Amino acid sequence: MKRLLILGAGTAGTMVVNKLRPRLRDDEWTITVVDSDPDHHYQPGYLFIPFGTYEPEEIVKPTKSFIPEGVQLVMGEIDLVEPEESKVKLVDGTELAFDQLIIATGTTPRRSETEGLDNPEYGISIHDFYTLEGATKLAEVLADWEGGRLVMNIIEMPIKCPVAPLEFMFLADSFFTEKGMRDKVDLTYVTPLDGAFTKPVAAKHLGAMLEERAIALEPDFMVMEVDSDRKALVSYDEREVPYDLLITVPVNMGADFVERSGLGDELNHVRVDKHTFLADDHDSIFAVGDASNIPTSKAGSVAHFAVEVFVENFLQHIRGAAMTGQFDGHANCFVESGHGKGLLIDFNYDVEPLPGKYPLPGIGPFSLLKETEANHWGKLMFKWTYWNVLLPGRELPLPAAMSMAGKETS
Question: What is the pTM of this model?
Answer without folding.
Answer: 0.95
